[in-house]
């Protein structure tokens, strides 16, 4: 059986910070991360989607967390075909036209895509050197569908990432339905990429099926987005507003165990917002998975 690690997607969400979950002595960035890492062995860094990570920040994250702690780091928007704010790019990559301008990869000119990947991998380098880079999460947009172009894009990501661990989340159900599912899992196995299993509200045009397949022997990833009926529409708070019950989490605990039979490490991340909903759900999941890797030092209360 592989290791199972449970955590949340972000430890800096403003609603979590203001919820009272962090104790009075954890009011600084360092204090919050150290407290979080005393409760869970895994977290996802999502700020890197908006701005390329800096090596100094990654070094601080590594220093402020105990041995064995893991960071899944979300790929920058440009790396998965999303538009991005120019202000989130270093000066050498930022096109002329102002920091508020939205840019796409094509705006960066020849070599721009490779330069973004180099900057990203350099920024997370200290985490990788410390053995704390769990995965680079490639969350593709709903318009990224299956087919030759999509397969070529995934292969290009693997080429640019080198040996970095990659996990792929699709927001287009076409990758995971009908005859396409076998082609998708086969492609990811060939590229050494982990398929991210997702939990969302079902029965909606934007729903993604809860496919949990181990496509990489080293890693499997589960992301639990909640069951909001506003999934795919409305504000971020509406899309991810949900409080998981033990009954809703139990099937995912069983899936995590099955994934651990095929992968050396399974990451289970809760991505619900609004106050302490994510950390509470992650705690419930940890209780459902007593075999999961414990946090280094879980404080009382």
UniProtKB/TrEMBL annotation:
<dbReference type="InterPro" id="IPR002763">
    <property type="entry name" value="DUF72"/>
</dbReference>
<dbReference type="Pfam" id="PF01904">
    <property type="entry name" value="DUF72"/>
</dbReference>
<dbReference type="InterPro" id="IPR036520">
    <property type="entry name" value="UPF0759_sf"/>
</dbReference>
<protein>
    <submittedName>
        <fullName>DUF72 domain-containing protein</fullName>
    </submittedName>
</protein>
